[in-house]
Structures are given as structure tokens and as C-alpha cells.
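Checklist before submission:
- one chain only
- standard amino acids only
- sequence pasted in full

Submission:
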Amino acid sequence: MFLRILLDSLLRQRRRKAIALAAVALGTAAASALGDIALDVGDKVNRELKSFGANLVVLPRGGSGPITIGGEDLSALRVPAYLPSDDVLRVKDNFWKNNILGFAPVLDVPVLVAGRKALLRGTWFERPAPVPGDPAAGTAAALAGLRVLNPYWSVEGRWPREAGAAGGGQPEILAGRAIAASLGLAAGGTTTIDVGGRDRTVTVAGILATGGGEDDMLLAPLEWTQAASGLDGRLSRVLVSALTTPESAVRERLGANPRDLPAAEFEKWTCTPFVSSIAWELERAWPAAEARIIRRVADAEGAILSRSSGLMALIAFMAAFGAALTVTSALTTGILERRVEIGLLKAMGAGNGTVVALFLAEAVAVGLLGGILGAAGGAALARAISVSVFGVPIALRPASLPLAIAAALLITLLGSVLPARRVAGFRPAEVLRGR
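Returned file contents:
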């Protein structure tokens, strides 16, 4: 009898139920779409932010810290320390190798150009960097170099060709915009650089504009710079871009000194891609090196990711809350229209529990159908948003469907609380006398 009454009730007041169904489906679609994006947005936004440069720098251990005596910085009097360039691939040969999105070895050498002091930076521009012993690398090795770390750098002309420079051919360089303007350099021209007391003629392949310190530098292939300066096999530093998780709330306690952490927290810290834990693994993989965090970049990434996740959570909550209000309104109106029917059921012996159960069963049926429709709509919406914003679709997870249906049921049940209390409060004599 209960199922028969339920089926008959579902087939009546179709417009009211359609409104409730649409509210549940739309609220579920918005919430599930934002949930899918929130689960996937961290990596995508982080990868987008990595386009703005490195968040880690690897330096020679003990040879890069400041030397202050009597308030004076005497670092310039220290003998320069270098890293062995043969070990550069260690930055990819560690526990977090899949999180290392790019790196670029650097050798900075002071030079003279037309009698003016300048900085020549030897580096990789773009080249494959296979990890030794990694069978998956092979011909599909990831690219490394400044062009990979900074894809938004603007070059007037073209990027230099690295091939042939180390073998004695005339090298090609990039000239920073500021130094090019002061020296009258142009893309396609040539200039002479005094490196280590010897003049060397180079071709200016392009003029580089970054808005940073590179605008005052000359950038050349690493091997040629090493040979010209007599610093074969040496590096000043390695710039690293790593995919990380924001650690703003735990940085001071968990990131200060890993060895002081309790065993459980230390394991959690090492297994989470915080920028500090990745730096620690880099130092383990390369004992002669010291990994430092570029806090300005890392903190900005964490702030953006936290705010974007918070914004999506707020929008998802507002969508679900709005849907619950719409369901409440539609169901309450339907109950008022059916108060005589409810009074008759109670007069015939149906208790409050039976009548409320009938009402909630209708709501659950609407919630299930709305959840299925909302899950499908949310998947399509999440895919469209991801393609529009990030250029690639998100990876839909198998758990999305049950979570969407659960969200729909929650929305429906929340929207049914007030109407259910209204049903329980109806008195058969008052309702039928008013009829």
C-alpha cells in the first residue's frame, strides 16, 4: 500500500516536482563540477604558475652564504664556490623526480663588453635531459633549460642555437633588453666580449625582455661559457621549478628542521610535496649542494592556490544552499496544496512517522534522479571549464558519480526539513474542518 501511494504521489504535482528536480540537478551539477575542478585544479594552476620561473635554487654547499664582519658584507672577497656540472642530473634523480618540471644549470662570469662591465650567464636554453638509469626516459626525455622554465620570456629575433658552440664555432647569445639598448646591440648583429682577458666574437641571436635581472645580462650556451672562462665542468647554481603543495600553515613547524620532527610527522612531511621537503630531497640526492627555496615565488603560489580553492568551495556551497532553498520552497508549496490529503491519511490511522516517511521517500526519489542528472551535467560542465581555462580536459574520477548522488540527496533532505516538520504538525480535525 505504501509503495502504491508513493507511486501515485510521484505522478501528481508534476510541475512542483519538476521545479524541485531542476533545482537539485542544477545545484548538484554546479557543486560536482567545482568539486572535480578543485581536485584537479591544484596541479593545473601550479603548472601554470611554474611558467613564471623557478621556485628552488641549488647552490654549492657552504659557499653561497653571506659573510658579514663588523656589519660589512665581505662575500665578494671569498673564493667562488662551484658545483660539478657532471652531477646536474641529480636534481631529477631523487624521490620527487616526477615533480621536477624543469631545471637550468647556470654559470655566471663577469666580462667586459665595449669597456663596460657586464655579467655573462652560461646556461642551457633548451635540451633533453634524460635521467641516468631511468628506462622511461630514452628518446622521450623531458626538456630542460631557461626556455622551459620561462616560456613567457619575450625574445626579439630568435633563441640561440647551442650546437657547435662548445666545439669552437662562433657562439650565439641573447642580449638583455637594457644592456642591448646601452651598447647598441641588435638581433642578427655581432659583438665582442672580453672573457678572462681574451676577446671573443659572438652573434646576437636575439634581444631578451624579461622585466627582471636578465635584462642586464648576456646569455650564452653553458659549455662555451665554461670553456671561454676556464671553468670547465663548473656551475654557479641550478634553477629548479618543482610542482609543490602549499605549506603556509605548516611551514614553520614542519619545514624548519625535519630531523627534529616526531617519526610520524617526519614521514608525512617527506611524503608530501612541500617545497621544503623537495629541497630536502634535492640535498640528499646531491650532498655537495644546498637547495634554497625562492620564498617570493613559493609563497605566491601557495597564496593563489589556497584562495582559488577557497573560492571554489564557497561557490559550491552557495550553489548547494540555493538549491536547498528552492527545494524547500517547492516542497512546502506542494504540501500546502495537499494538506487535505495529508489530513485524510492521518484521519484513517496513518501516524506522523508514516506520513513523514512517505514525504521523505518522494524527496529521496527526486534527489536520486536529480543526482544522476546533476552528475552528468557536472562532468560536462567541469570538462568545459577546464578546456576553456587550462586548454585541457580534467580527468574525471570514478568516485564523482556516487559523490554527486550523495550531494543531491543531502541537498534534497536539507530542503525537506522544514516541509517535513510542517507535515508532522498537521492536525486532521483542523485540516478537514477548514476544507
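Reviewer check: Residues 295-337 form the longest helix (43 residues).
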